[in-house]
Amino acid sequence: MKPEIKAMNDLLDALTELAGSLATSHGSTIRGIEKAIDRALPGFPRQSVEILTGYADEMLRVDASRGALVIASFVGILRQQYDGTPLTLSEWRQLRDLISDCADELEMDAVTYAMSLIMDYGAL
Q1: Is the pTM of this model over 0.85?
Q2: Three-class secondary structure of residue 41 per DSSP
Q3: Which one, of 17, 82, 86, 89, lies nearest residue 56 by Cα?
């Protein structure tokens, strides 16, 4: 299995597992989500990981399986490896907001890749 596919699968598995414990142990679960995202995005700016962790916390509370899939898709896009997972317009807009908030810290290639997808899906 390619390393990038393994990283995405590991992230999806970790988020799905952590979603079940959000209600009972919020603090440690948030740290677990952050660690999982950190492993999937090695070397990414701290602010980007923190914002993505906040999105993950929110999304996993609403719908654990969908939230995990969306966050894994966001990570894939940040890694410039979008797998084509269908996202809603609202989810594309959340990604747009993440990119806008972190554009100064992200590599320009990642920003360009993400923004071109965001434009393609009509969320700009």
Answers
A1: yes
A2: coil
A3: 17
Residue 58 structure tokens: 């929110």
Q: Give φ, ψ of 93 to 5 degrees.
A: -70, -35
Sequence-ordered list of residues with C-beta below 8 angstroms from that of 59, at least 6 positions apart, any chain: 66, 67, 68, 70, 71
Structure tokens belonging to residue 52: 């993505």
The runs of H, that is alpha helices, within the chain are 3-19, 26-40, 46-62, 64-78, 89-102, 108-120
Spatial distance between the Cα atoms of 122 and 112, rounded to a whole number of angstroms:
15
Task: Note whether 95 and 101 are within 8 A (CB).
Answer: no
The one-character DSSP state at 106 is: S
Per-residue pLDDT of the chain (124 residues; tens, 9 = 90+): 677 778 878 888 888 888 777 656 666 788 999 999 999 999 999 989 999 999 999 999 899 889 999 999 999 999 999 999 999 999 999 999 999 999 999 999 999 999 999 999 988 7
CA angle 34, 55, 14 (to 5 degrees): 45
